[in-house]
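HUMAN: Can I see a protein plus its fold?

ASSISTANT:
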Amino acid sequence: MHDCELVDILTYPDWVIAIGRTPRGYRCWVFTPDFTVLDDGEFHPTSEAAAETARCLIMESREY
């Protein structure tokens, strides 16, 4: 993505969250254990909001 600056990386066992800042807001990407990349396609007002969305993506994607 153009004009996106990586601002944070969060890790969980086997999962990685990347948070990026753009002129329109913050974005999140989740890297799954099989290296699939997930994102919600939304712009968030804060990096914390983007991280919370990413955590929700992880919870919804985990296989039990």
Summary: DSSP finds one helix and four strands in the chain.
